[in-house]
Every structure is written in C-alpha cells, then in structure tokens.
Amino acid sequence: MSEQKITISNGVLNVPNNPTVPFIEGDGIGVDIWPAAQKVLDSAVEKAYSGAKSIVWKEVLAGEKAFNQTGEWMPAATLDAFREYLVGIKGPLTTPVGGGIRSLNVALRQELDLYACVRPVRWFEGTPSPVKEPGLTDMVIFRENTEDIYAGIEFEKGTEDAKKLNDFLKSTFPKKFEKVRFPETAGYGLKPVSEEGTHRLVKSAIDYAFEQKRDSVTLVHKGNIMKYTEGAFKTWGYELAKNSYGAKDYEGGPWQIIEKDGHQVIIKDVIADAFLQQILLRPAEYSVIATLNLNGDYISDALAAIVGGIGIAPGANINYLSGNAIFEATHGTAPKYAGQDKVNPGSVILSGAMMLEYFGWQEAANLIYKGLEASIAKKRVTYDFERLMDGATLLKCSEFGDEIVKNM
Ligand SMILES: NC(=O)C1=CN([C@@H]2O[C@H](COP(=O)(O)OP(=O)(O)OC[C@H]3O[C@@H](n4cnc5c(N)ncnc54)[C@H](OP(=O)(O)O)[C@@H]3O)[C@@H](O)[C@H]2O)C=CC1
Ligand SMILES: O=C(O)CCC(=O)C(=O)O
Ligand SMILES: [Mg+2]
C-alpha cells in the first residue's frame, strides 16, 4: 500500500484513513510513556473505526537517541519529516541547564513556526488535587511559542559578545547602561515580542473560544514592568479584538466584548502575578488564556498541578495557517524515573487524543477520555496519583496504558 499523507487545502486538513504520522520517542521517560501511548492510540482508533482507519507510525530521531545513532541532536531528516507529513507527536527531550545545546523542543517549534502552544487544563473526576474544588478549573492555555526570551538571544557574562553589547549600550544608550548594576559580570537576554506574533496567537485563542463556545479570553502579561513587550502584547491583543472582530468596550473598557453568531466572548486582561493567585482563588472566572512564551511555560505547570499534575497535562504546538502540528506532553524527561516503567503516560496519551481530534477522529479521542476516566474512577493508577489517593492500586506505566484500553 502506498504511503498516505495528511495535507491541507484552503485551510482545511485532509486526513486519509491510514495517515503516516512521524513520532519522536523522547529522552528519559520517553522509553516508558511512548510505547504505552502508542498502544492506547492504536486501540482507540481500531475500536472506533473497526479497522477502517489506522495510523502508520514512522519513527524519526531527535535528542539522545539521534545523537547516539547519527552524531546529531536534531537530524535534518526529522525536521523534513514533520514538514512533509504535516502532523506528528513527540516525547520529551532533554535540555541542559546553563550551557550545552539549546532546547530541541524550542528549536522544533521555531523551525516549523508552530506559533501556538495549546494546553488544555481540565479535571477528570476522581483525580487527586491539592484544592477543594478542582472541577472549577477548566482552562485552555494559548502560549505564544516562537518569540519572547525563548528566542535564545543571550550573551554570556565576560564574553566578547557581552563586552560588545556593554560598549554599544554605553555609547548609544548611556542612561539605560547606567541601570546595569554590575556590567562586568552581567549576562544578558533579549526578549523580542512582535505585533504580528501577538496577533496570530491571540487570533487563534479568540477563534478557539468561538468554536468551543467559551465565554472569555484573558490576556495574561506583566505589562506594568515590561511595557514594550508584555504591555504591548496586551495592547495588540485588544486592538486585534477591535479591528478584526468588531469588539466593543465592555462596561466602559478596557475589557472588550465580541458578539458573533449568537455567541459572546469577553476579552479581558490580568497581570501575571495576580493571575497566579487567582487561578487558586477564583479559577471559574478564567476560560481561554492567551499569553507570552515564558508566562505560558510557568502557567502550564501551575495549572496542571491543580488538576492532578504534569503526569496528565497534554499539549499541542500548532501553526493554524500551514496545518503543521506537533503534539507533546507539558512535562519533561523526568530522568530519575527513566526506564522504570513507573511514570504516568497520561500526558502523552491525552496529547495523542488531541491529535485525533485535530484529525477529526473525535470518536477515537472520546474512547481515550472514557478509558482514562474509568481507570481513575476504579483507582487503578500510576504512582503520582496513587500516593495521593486512599485505597488506590498502584499500576506501572505500561499497566496504566493497558487499563485505559480495557476501560474504553
Ligand atoms: N517539552 C519537553 O520535551 C520538555 C522537556 N523538559 C526537559 O526535561 C528535563 C527534566 O526537567 P524537569 O525540570 O525535571 O521536569 P520534568 O517535567 O521532567 O519532571 C519534573 C517532575 O514532574 C513529575 N513528572 C514529570 N513527568 C511525569 C509523568 N509522566 N508522570 C508523573 N509525574 C511526572 C515528577 O515529579 P515527582 O518527582 O514529584 O514524582 C518529576 O520529577 C530537562 O532537561 C528539561 O529541559 C522539560 C519540560 C518540557
Ligand atoms: O525545552 C525544554 O527543555 C523545556 C520546555 C518546556 O518547559 C515546555 O515546553 O513547557
Ligand atoms: Mg515547561
């Protein structure tokens, strides 16, 4: 049988019945969670469509496995495959702290211009939580995925480049240079945030809110301090709402309201530190979140903790224009657990369910949600949930995957 590829035409994804889908196994716990996830995804598709549809998996290399086999961390063939097959999925990849290679995860997002990092945060009944009413937390984060401090424009203390930057600041912006407390020993990072980058991200959040009949989009920023990056993000977000969606002032502004096809979406904003306390105190007031790259990173893990932790926090990196998408868990490689068949495969499984929804294979995705909910209800779970639940049965990573399949 010849290979079937996902394509896009006029903004609509065409998914054949047997699409080839590239996957990266991932470093660390990738060896544990990926096989469990693949089994769950294949079982859900088989059960939903009785063999009429299936995924043809194509392994592509990145990270330690790639380096060991090819001497490269991110072989060009891997990027080519994600371009060619349009949609893929990946396990986590290691990024050293303080030196060494830059993040391969970030590189993939930037190379393929996957500008929206979409991370839904919902509570599955019975999941252990540190808050009294976890069901009130139901948010979808749209994190800008290509700009901000993640652009990686950094200058290491004491290097020629850092000295050049110091000289440039001193001669061109002397007043600003005076604010550098210890210039000789300062490292620097640049934070590019653009109008186009903000518009496309906020647009995807607003469009999602209308598609999913959600009632608000909140712009989360630290614009009081970083006026021309985070503050501009807020301003450009509101401008987009007005200029592209005909938003009107809500209760005198600055909040906006958009009315379309009988549905209303409020566009509002909140400063990031206040938001981090409000997600604990008043979570029901937030639905779709549009934010910058670094805020989105922090917010993802903080929100995940409320509904069960990063063992069950899925995500997608999407370019809504090209159709390119790579689905991946919010968590990392959790190296201390690597190869122990121990951790929760829930995040990558739910990322896979998001991928099936992206294909339009909702029936298969629903089977995964059903299987997961039933496994949690039966208290047959991995260590992260078991340690917080009374009377639960401890399952291995692979056993939890099998349990989901059994309960579909
Ligand atoms: N997209 C990606 O590929 C990402 C990669 N990374 C990279 O991963 C590496 C490790 O990062 P680190 O900061 O330790 O963060 P991790 O997300 O890898 O792990 C932090 C902690 O989260 C919990 N955890 C993570 N995954 C699971 C799971 N599947 N099931 C249950 N619990 C889980 C564990 O908590 P506990 O100890 O309480 O059991 C773990 O110790 C770094 O190199 C980092 O750069 C990080 C984030 C995303
Ligand atoms: O790339 C990394 O190592 C970290 C990425 C990350 O934390 C995230 O995407 O949430
Ligand atoms: Mg993160």
Automatic annotation (TrEMBL):
EC number, as in UniProt: 1.1.1.42
Isopropylmalate dehydrogenase-like domain residues: 20-404
UniProt keyword Ribosomal protein present: no
Cofactor binding note from Swiss-Prot or TrEMBL: Binds 1 Mg(2+) or Mn(2+) ion per subunit.
GO molecular function: isocitrate dehydrogenase (NADP+) activity; magnesium ion binding; NAD binding
SMART domains, A to Z: Iso_dh
Annotated positions of the N6-succinyllysine modification: 90, 234
Catalysis performed (reactions): D-threo-isocitrate + NADP(+) = 2-oxoglutarate + CO2 + NADPH
Main EC class the enzyme belongs to: oxidoreductase
PROSITE patterns: IDH_IMDH (PS00470)
Modification sites for N6-acetyllysine: 132
Protein residues bound to NADP(+): 94, 331-337, 344, 383, 387
Keywords, in A-Z order: Glyoxylate bypass, Magnesium, Manganese, Metal-binding, NADP, Oxidoreductase, Tricarboxylic acid cycle
Residues of the site described as Critical for catalysis: 150, 222
Entry-linked Gene3D superfamilies: Isopropylmalate Dehydrogenase
Family membership: Belongs to the isocitrate and isopropylmalate dehydrogenases family.
Matching PANTHER family: ISOCITRATE DEHYDROGENASE [NADP]
Protein name from the UniProt record: Isocitrate dehydrogenase [NADP]
Organism, as annotated: Roseivirga seohaensis subsp. aquiponti
